[in-house]
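Duplicate of #3305? Posting structure anyway:
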């Protein structure tokens, strides 16, 4: 597997605020977006004294559920008892707020998922050090009486002095909520233990299984139970042996012990730490000293330490007179104009609705939640094989025709603007599943089933594109890319997902005819989506989709 060349440019870790984002939450000044997931949005914010925190705001649908609120408060109370050196400390929460929120220590570094996506599998010694650090984090979590339940590469951040485990136990609040049908996916199939997949009680051994799958993934670049639909991955975890063919042989025994089907056969965290220390690759010493990470990964960490400045405080509840009332201040993100996602919004329309901002041509999207979905579902990441992304600019092939729009659409009103269907472009290994299929989601209770090319009720599709609160959302193990201008080919999509993944998919950015793409877990399936109509509220949303599948 190839990696990015040393010194390759990386997109920004932070995203400018949009007019819909709050500027203050619970006394914390909100500075930038870090990403969004099934449970809500995550922001970079500052305490009154200037310390950065990662602040998560829960989705409105969950906030309206009393049962979720009760469980969320319980899980936050448990999480605040955890004080491990390899965990992100919970520092504050607003469980009774109109929109519940939670603040955790900010970790200046990317996630393991993102590291592997960019640079490929990690060296054996680095993997063993991470194993020991994450196992120690699990010890602190389990000592507090909490089971993580969703340990995966996207929920482990990498700092210069070692890993930090995030999202410990909070997802259980949503797992028991009847609103899991609003687009949430609790747990990650590639890392769920057999007992978890079968609906049995989760124990510390459940987290050990997930740790084994995580180590196999970052050491090989592929999930030990393969990619594909959730039911297939869960079946393999329950009934089949893991595929460790790409994992260094020196890690096989440790991983196989962790991935034992019977929870009682798995080692505890103390034994895993001892095994990592005694491994020949670590030389009897577990220490996160200089050189423990490959240099390109260290460069990524340095980039995350360059935080944007705080926005100016509001005076009397209003922004300073020099700033637009609802617009992000221009100096929130001190970055070149080419890295900003949105310009300042246009003035309000006479009807009272805000006129849609016209995104700047050539604008580049910014990196998806590199610093943390610290609670709830973690931000979406994909283990794309960089080998499929090399030399994509030279792989534009002849266009292939597609079928006419499907009758599966839930509305047949024509697009309000003339559109030219995007022509699918082939890439070696990929075939076109369907092309230029026009579909309409009547409201937020329906999502686009990207596998079948149909509109489906929420929580019924395994690979999906949903929408709520003025933006699209995708599964936590998926990733997206927004075209800098109209039109998007498959090669451009694959390259963009690797180098410029989109943190969010707001309607304000995706004006009619703007294209974006979504890849499934592992990048085996890719959908290029063109927005035809979007809604400022919960009205119908219409798109055109071309989907591709990679064989093998």
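Output from current build:
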């Amino acid at each position: 597997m190839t990696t990015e060349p040393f010194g390759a440019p990386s997109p920004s870790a932070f995203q400018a605020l949009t007019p819909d984002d709050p500027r203050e939450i619970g006394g914390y000044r909100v500075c930038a977006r870090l990403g969004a997931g099934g449970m809500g949005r995550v922001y970079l914010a500052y305490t009154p004294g200037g310390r950065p925190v990662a602040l998560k705001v829960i989705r409105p649908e969950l906030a309206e559920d009393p049962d979720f609120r009760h469980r969320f408060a319980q899980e936050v109370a448990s999480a605040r008892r955890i004080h491990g050196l390899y965990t992100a400390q919970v520092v504050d929460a607003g469980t009774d707020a109109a929109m519940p929120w939670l603040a955790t220590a900010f970790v200046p570094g990317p996630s393991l998922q993102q590291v592997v996506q960019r640079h490929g599998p990690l060296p054996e010694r680095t993997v063993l050090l991470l194993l020991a650090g994450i196992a120690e984090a699990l010890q602190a979590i389990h000592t507090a009486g909490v089971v993580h339940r969703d340990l995966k590469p996207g929920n482990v951040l990498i700092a210069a002095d070692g890993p930090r485990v995030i999202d410990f136990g909070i997802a259980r609040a949503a797992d028991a909520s009847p609103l899991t049908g609003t687009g949430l996916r609790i747990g990650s199939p590639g890392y769920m233990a057999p007992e978890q997949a079968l609906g049995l009680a989760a124990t510390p051994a459940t987290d050990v299984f997930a740790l084994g799958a995580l180590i196999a993934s970052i050491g090989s670049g592929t999930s030990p139970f393969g990619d594909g639909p959730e039911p297939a991955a869960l079946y393999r975890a329950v009934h089949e042996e893991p595929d460790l063919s790409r994992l260094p042989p020196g890690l096989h025994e440790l991983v196989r012990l962790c991935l034992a089907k019977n929870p009682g056969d798995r080692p505890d965290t103390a034994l895993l730490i001892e095994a990592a220390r005694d491994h020949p690759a670590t030389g009897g010493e577990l220490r996160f000293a200089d050189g423990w990470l490959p240099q390109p990964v260290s460069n990524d960490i340095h980039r995350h330490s360059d935080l944007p400045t705080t926005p100016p405080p509001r005076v009397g509840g209003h922004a300073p007179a020099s700033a637009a009332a609802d617009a992000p201040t221009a100096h929130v993100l001190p970055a070149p104009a080419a890295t900003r996602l949105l310009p300042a919004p246009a003035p309000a329309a006479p009807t009272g609705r805000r006129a849609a901002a016209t995104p700047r041509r050539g604008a580049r999207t910014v990196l998806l939640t590199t610093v943390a979905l610290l609670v709830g579902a973690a931000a979406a990441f994909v283990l794309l094989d960089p080998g499929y992304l090399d030399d994509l600019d030279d792989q534009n092939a002849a266009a292939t025709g597609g079928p006419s729009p499907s009758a599966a659409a839930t509305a047949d009103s024509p697009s309000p603007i003339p559109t030219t269907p995007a022509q699918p472009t082939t890439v070696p290994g990929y075939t076109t599943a369907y092309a230029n299929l026009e579909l309409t989601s009547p409201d937020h209770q329906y999502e686009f089933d990207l596998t079948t090319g149909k509109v489906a009720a929420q929580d019924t599709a395994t690979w999906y594109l949903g929408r709520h609160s003025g933006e699209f959302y995708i599964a936590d193990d998926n990733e997206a890319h927004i075209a800098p201008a109209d039109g998007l080919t498959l090669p451009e999509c694959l390259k963009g997902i690797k180098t410029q993944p989109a943190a969010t998919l707001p309607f304000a950015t995706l004006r009619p005819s703007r294209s974006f793409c979504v890849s499934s877990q592992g990048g085996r399936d890719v959908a290029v989506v063109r927005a035809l109509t979007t809604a400022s509220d919960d009205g119908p949303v219409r798109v055109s989709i071309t989907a591709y599948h990679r064989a093998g």
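Confirmed duplicate; merging threads. The CA atoms of residues 331 and 405 lie 44 Å apart. The chain has twelve helices and 18 strands.
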